[in-house]
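Dear colleagues,

As part of the handover before I leave the project, I'm documenting each prediction I ran so the next person doesn't have to rerun anything. This entry is a single chain, and its sequence is reproduced below.
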Amino acid sequence: MHRKLIQSWGIWAGVLIASIVGVVCIPWDLEISQFVQSIKIPGDLRKAVNLSEAFGHTIGPVAIFFTLIWIDIRNRKKLFKAALFTAICGISANAAKYVIPRLRPHSLDMAETEIATSWDTWGTPWTGSWFDEHLRSFPSGHSATAVAFAIGLYQVYPRGKWIFFTIAALACFQRLVSSAHFLSDIMGGTVLSLLISLWYWRGEHANNVNQECTIDETIAPNTLASPQRKSAATE
């Protein structure tokens, strides 16, 4: 129960931090986007950031989940559950795009009126074409999918959490670098996936912590006992 509370509070802390960052950044989204575009990222690092987009694109998770489900028979049930969770988060984020239209950073020149502040990027709820991707900036579907994908993989392979969430962070940063989204859009997608995870994976976060601790506890005794077994065998 103690570990369960810690994990739940960890997710809620992530929701709170991402929400605060997103709200605070809304008035400064234009300036933040312009600042990021002015940063000169070295060639190989930029390539790595650009390639990380696949982690949040539909094709990436589908291909990886298909491969893992095919080769990892023991965790197949967990992988199906993780894949469904990722799909729910991605679909929810893309559905939310159609509630409030918002121009993407790379589409500001297509605005009918001059964009002077970040507030001018927002449109009237339930307006605009459903098929006009230039008006579907909030929330970031890639970010929601990347975060959900990392959480899903973590549920199956908890010891790889730092790898999964690092790649997810790069995928989110790529949306900012490519002018596909504002920072508040990325935070919105992140919050959405975290909130859904609290419902979808209720109780599972604690199990992963227990699993990691169990693995560590079983490895250590075996390692310490091996010399004794060897000596007993020689006697």
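Confidence is low (pLDDT under 50) at residues 213-235. The domain at 2-106+122-219 is CATH 1.20.144 (Vanadium-containing Chloroperoxidase; domain 1).

All the best with the project,
I.
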